[in-house]
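Hi team,

Filling in the usual template for the complex we talked about on Friday. All components are listed, including any nucleic acid strands or ligand strings, so the model treats them as one assembly.

SUBMITTER: L.P.
PURPOSE: interface mapping
COMPONENTS: two
RESIDUES: 830
SEQUENCES:
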Amino acid sequence: MFTSHQRSTPTQDSVRRQNLGALLRYVHVSGDTSRAELTNQLGLNRSTIGALTADLAGAGLIDEGTPQETGRAGRPSLVVRPRSSRVYGYALSIEVDRLRAARVGLGGKVLDSRELPRPHGTAVRDTVTTLAGFVRDMQRTASPDGVFVGSGIAVSRMMRHADGVVRMLSATVSAVDGVAVAAGTAAAAADVVAGLGARLGAELGAAFGGQLGLDRPPMIGTVADLAALAEHTRGAAAGLDNVVHLHGDAGISAGIIAGGRRVTGQGGHGGEVGHMVVNPQGRECGCGSRGCWETEIARYVSLERGAVRACVDAARLGDPAARAAVRHAADWLGFGVANLVNIFNPTAVVFGGALRELYLAGTAQVRGRLTTALPACREHLRLRTPLLGDDAPLVGAAELAFERLLADPLETAES
Amino acid sequence: MFTSHQRSTPTQDSVRRQNLGALLRYVHVSGDTSRAELTNQLGLNRSTIGALTADLAGAGLIDEGTPQETGRAGRPSLVVRPRSSRVYGYALSIEVDRLRAARVGLGGKVLDSRELPRPHGTAVRDTVTTLAGFVRDMQRTASPDGVFVGSGIAVSRMMRHADGVVRMLSATVSAVDGVAVAAGTAAAAADVVAGLGARLGAELGAAFGGQLGLDRPPMIGTVADLAALAEHTRGAAAGLDNVVHLHGDAGISAGIIAGGRRVTGQGGHGGEVGHMVVNPQGRECGCGSRGCWETEIARYVSLERGAVRACVDAARLGDPAARAAVRHAADWLGFGVANLVNIFNPTAVVFGGALRELYLAGTAQVRGRLTTALPACREHLRLRTPLLGDDAPLVGAAELAFERLLADPLETAES
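RESULT (copied from the run log):
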């Protein structure tokens, strides 16, 4: 708690910075906003809002203008708008089967985007080259007076677990892209991921000669954590402070929000809910345990999105085996969710990735199992599907990209 | 995030308040501290520390004096000390089998304490009467110029679950203390607990004529949450930001700290880790499920402290059945801890209450099971036993009592 203190005499600076950040965040999340609403929502008086607005406008982060057509009669009052086409960050996403990148404007507007499939086992070097190419390409169309504020990468855990970069649970040591990786250690996984960020920063820095700050290494989060951040910021869990966001993608990871903050654990490796063992007599899991939650579900329906969709479709057409599979898989899904509800007493559980369709097809089974959670823990619980769909990890990566700007708007915009 | 804004022009006030709180909290947690250390630890310059110290001393919250004997040569520099005997709160604890109360001085010093056994099924009215009596009694010996800053109560979940006040999982409606309680709802449990706080406040207010603010309802937390807060503040998990603190007391609840903050869920009902189902073929649990973690452990060793001690003692003396029971129970203990480690990626797991002795007797089994957690999630993990022992819930309740003071020292001290 002492990190927020400046090594200087306390001044109005930190209060002003906090207020600038709060105003800019509000406009970033909510879009066009009248000064009256800002006064109301931020609990600041009109003259303060006026001063803050002027500062942010002076830094080129917002402007004021007429709102979108409201349909209401009378002359519309001016609104404060994020300067989405001028102030931007890059959001990148490394998924099991594809690479994506977007140039995202303040306010969350996607200005440009790129995507390519990612063949199984792609090396780190090739991943970096592809992502750097995306960024260089998009940067060409950016306005010359644009302000780059940062970048974020969503990294699939599955990439680290299962397809060649770091096999966390294997006893072998493999050489990836010239770097010997001692498999089985979190440090190795962290090194590879951090290395990936640093290389991307270096490659972009070389391309742009360090201009624009593009050589600054991106912020990194897992797909599950960033999908949760995205849905919490502007999706299915907006405004909810205690959220378990499940992400099905071969296995199950969770992005967890508690008291409005991300819960990621000491090394950022928390949320491995798929490896919560729920059945000591269950199947062997790739992790070496037996009866992990994700393994028990996958006995019936493989947690790949295509497999879930095919099974759910067959069940809808009346195929008895598919119907039984969906029923059993959804029952196990609810089984684990009940455990998480007892642990987190969340306001919402969001079923993302491959779990979305399984939940929708097996809602009755999930809800049935949830009645076994303690009444106190499940009271007021909402079950939801994501609003942002496949874009959630990218949107979350963009939120990471804007984090520094929103914490200290003027300093970041001018740096 | 907008709640921290004041409805006024930003001034130095909020920065000053934050710095006063940080300085007072540092002294409260760390005890006697030199100005040099404060300057260093808080990242503020000497003149600011001087001004803050003067303000806090002026409000009677701290003083400056010679430190305890250090054994070092030379003239000791002055230290800032919390005025423990003048500034105090009340910490109360309602446990399954006893009621405890302490008058605790700033800095965490226990100035006075009381304890009585609590017969099974004691009504809320009698609990309130006993606790109010404790407080009245201790208040008599408080200095007339003492400053009362608040009170906190630790409430055992078990009281709510299992012994007559609210049977959360029973379908019956029972009349407790003249209040009809619809059993099975969290709202009912919350009402009873909030009602308990309000009644205690009212009873003390009547006794003291509203003097000293003793009629202010106490802050309330569960035994598990407050034991975790205590160990995190000044015990086995001091300085660690990601902690799962297990509390064994008939069942198992957890107090969870993530990113330095308590994770309690939307209604404060999180941490019910004992009802994480780990064995679908397991025994029926009182909650209506089958194979809950605490039930699987209790197949071998009942999670009452006396029962654990007796079994562990018999095992030490070589009794084969007791040795097998400890081995099996500790194996199940480790089984569930591995799940929590995958979910939270904690820095430390603390084994409190009845789990302390089970962990100490079965460390090998617990550690063995932990190897099934994902390597990334268990890296750097420390397993610990509490440092504060049975006092942890009381110490945590005292931390709650001081929370308001530490957030805004001058306002609270003068109110």
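MY TAKE: Chain B touches chain A through 81 residues (CB under 8 Å). The first helix of chain B runs from residue 13 to 30.

Thanks, L.
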